[in-house]
Amino acid sequence: MEYTIQKFANIAGISTRTLRYYDEIGLLSPARTSSSGYRIYGQWEVDQLQQILFYRELGVNLEVIRKIITDPTFDRIQALQKHLKRLLDRREQLDLLIANAEQTIALAEGRRTTMSDREKFEGFKERMIDENETAYGKEIRNKYGDDSVHKSNKRLQKMTEKEYEDWTHLGNEVKVTLAKAFQTGNPASDIAQKAAALHKRWLAFTWDKYTSEAHAELAQMYVDDERFKAFYDTEHPGTAEFLRDAIHIYTGFRV
Questions:
Q1: Residues with Cβ within 8 Å of residue 225, at least 6 apart in sequence
Q2: CATH number at residue 26
Q3: Are residues 152 and 195 in the same domain?
Q4: Which of 128, 161, 191, 242 has the most CB atoms lying inside 10 A of its own CB?
Q5: pLDDT digits (tens, 9 = 90+) for 105-116
Q6: Can you spell out the DSSP letters for 146-193?
Q7: What is the pLDDT of residue 95?
């Protein structure tokens, strides 16, 4: 079946302006142009747009999407399977958040008399996972793969309240130690290497499998990604680079 740009935009729930822009940047072009000058889209374009919208829903930027779907090795079925897995993971997280919100409202309104600390805690963990997925999911999944991210989220979901407290405490210890180490200006100093070792322990709480190389790559991402860099550089600009250098020395890897 073929569609004019207006009909195609209507069934896809996007604007004709968006379709024209996709054509301009080489992301999705019409199958042909009619004798009257209308852009005509066919089944192949329908399938391609479906992929594009899946990736957009997952937060992937247009340039990355273009590179993915124009790659000669692009496997549509495999891509759909990955989309499905991500969506199922997101649904599971949302279902838990919805249930937790409903329980909290019921408690506040008096329709429920008790809500255990564990139930409140479970909702908090799910909210953290959802926020991290929204903020950093694309970069982390591109670097480490869907399976690694899924396993990491599962480890966080299964944390006991005590384990979560220990993980949070360790994260704060990393920050304090890193701040002291930064004052030395030497990423090879004992205290800087202590910060790198603490960071490794902090990662071990959620990582399914630790490797020195992956640790070094993550440290580099702290510098390359402006959001991570801003987090570490809040009080002292240059801290992200200092942590990266300390971790690279600690792991013996440089990316």
A1: 136, 139
A2: 1.10.1660.10
A3: no
A4: 242
A5: 765 666 655 555
A6: HHHHHHHHHHHHH--HHHHHHHHHHHHHHHHHHHHHHHHT-TTSHHHH
A7: 73
